[in-house]
Amino acid sequence: MTSFSGSTDWRARTLAFAVGMILVLLLADRAQAQASAACETSELTTIALKTARSGDEKARIAAARAFFENWRANLPGLMKELDLLSEQGKISSWSASDLQYATFLTDVVKTILSVNDQAIPLFRACDNERIIRLLVWASRGEDRSLRLNSANILANVVDNTTLCFVLHHLRDPSININGRANLLGVAVAVGSYAYKENVDAITTTLSKVKETIASSDDVAQTQKLIVELASRAQRSSNGSVPLPSDLAQYCKSYDYEKPLQ
Amino acid sequence: MLWQMLEALASLAKAAYTEFKLFFGTPLFFILLGCGFLFAAWRLMQETHPSFVFLLAILGLSIVLYGTGTQGVGSAEFKDVPVKVAVAGGAGVLAGVFGFGVLWQSAKIGDVFRTTHQYGLVVLSNKTDNLLDLTTLRIAAKSPDGRQLHLLAKSDTVEIVTPMAYFSDKLRVCVELKTATGKPVTGPNPCPPLKWTKVEVGEYGEQVSQVATGDLPLTAAQPTRTDDRNRAVEQTAFSPQ
User: Fold this and answer.
1) Model ipTM over 0.85
2) Which domain holds residue A53?
3) Tens digit of pLDDT for each residue in A227-241?
4) pTM for the predicted model, two decimal places
5) Which of A76, A96, A253, B218 is the 20 to 30 Å CA partner of B138?
6) Which residues does residue B124 pair with via DSSP β-bridges, in sequence order?
7) What is the DSSP letter of A259?
8) Which of A129, A157, A185 is the last residue of a domain?
């Protein structure tokens, strides 16, 4: 009787464990599905984007207001559109209509991020290196509106996972003054919580920037940002901690020697 | 010699002072003084409360009448009751002229007193961010003395109704703007200086006689920066170039 009871207990425990595991797997799968679903572009967003792209100023304003109203559903679609634009090659070779459309998209994304606090985590969850690279290029580009919008977006969304893309551009000696100031400003926003790899990269980048601007005039703003970034990186709360595995995708072993993309 | 010259100067000054004092008792002085009051009433009509304008006008008219009618005084006795009647010389004529004017311009005079029930409309346009729909914002408007004002938010403009006892050239209306989530988006100057412009009655509604237009003091919302784990981090002032 005792052995039978013990056997039943063992079977019950095994069954409970198996059911528990299945539930955990199901929940994890559901969470993953929900996360990827949150980054999907809805049909309505696609239609509104088409209207905005082909329509006049009024159509764009109407579309933008619709995007603001339901930003959670629309932000991934707007990001996807930026991703598609990144396939068009260098920004300097874009057509005027592409530039105008990109300015519109970044204007909308910028407003969504600044008004809704929960939009920043959503952007980070749905972004990829192409979108960040596009925004970095735009932040140092010639088109003023696109540059301002892109720099604004980056200052809010760049974190330890994407800081390396910004630092890579800062090492480029051909970057213009505005671009350098913008990207330094973006990096300053991350400096206070940069992990070890990024702190090291910031230090190296700053010495390269200092070398580049040594013979330049009109760099007072740049100098100020360099001091600010160095100070923040030095007292970073994560300065001595290596990048955790879940944040290490791009910046853990970023190759700063490869050509800019 | 010197003493004589001083005496002559003193007597001249005394005579001039006496003449000067006498002038303030002449009818001409009172007529001019009254006209001055009437002129002040006319000049201040648009920017001063009507009751004050009314007082100035009445005072001016009275002084003018006093200046013109100092000569005519009469007296009589009715059943051992002495009655003195003072009749201003040109006062009758002037009173007739003013009385006729009151009847002739009665509608416009009525308008002067009707300003106590008029409204000014302040129209502030969004010149900062044309993509933003102003109806999605929380907007409050106050007069500089702290009174809450009624407003109507449209997609691109905000119309603020300001009850006015009188209209001066300039005004200030203070606006407070917040996003739907409560983030402040009021610009650095929440009380922009504005200027009234007269409009035709009916153009903006029956009771709106003046409109002031300007820019809405709107600025971009400041995002709450967070780290990789969505924890708030040290905020930075960032101005892209």
Assistant:
1) no
2) 36-157
3) 999 999 999 999 999
4) 0.71
5) A76
6) B158, B214
7) P
8) A157
